[in-house]
Amino acid sequence: MTMQALPQREGDRPDTGPAVPHVQFTQTSPKAVREQLRQWMSTEFPDTVTGPSEISDPGAFAVFLDGHAPAKGAVLLPPRLTAEFAHVHVDGSLHLALSPEDQKKLLARGWGEPHPLYSAEINVVMLYAPRTVEELDVARTVLEASYRYATGHDRVAV
């Protein structure tokens, strides 16, 4: 699946916090789905490292560029804006950096919302927590788009 083929999200929008910390209160991920997502994030992206988020609540698991600068024009997550491109919260929702085109697709198809602090300088959108194994594939697709935005190239199987 590509961001171009992203399906429309089924069901109502989940309840999320209107301010920081920006979290999801309803329709959270089952523990097994969250664990599969974290494991996948740990192994799928070349030239990255994983660990605690530099910006999110305790327990958030992030992916960082390892030893190289982001692609020209890419604005990643604060505070550095140069390393962390995605993190998953304990509720299963994610914050990530995406290109403007991919942000539009994500929002138009009902998979997420802008972060309350979103601006030209704070390029953060929320991807709603995957509720099923099928929605886990959507999360993987969106994370691959975030990686592509951060690095300027596609993921290569490792």
Automatic annotation (TrEMBL):
Transmembrane segments: none
Superkingdom of source: Bacteria
Xref: InterPro entries: Luciferase, Luciferase_dom
Disordered: annotated segments: 1-23
Luciferase domain mapped to chain residues: 83-146
Name of the protein described by the UniProt record: Luciferase domain-containing protein
Organism whose genome encodes this protein: Candidatus Protofrankia californiensis
Species lineage: Bacteria, Bacillati, Actinomycetota, Actinomycetes, Frankiales
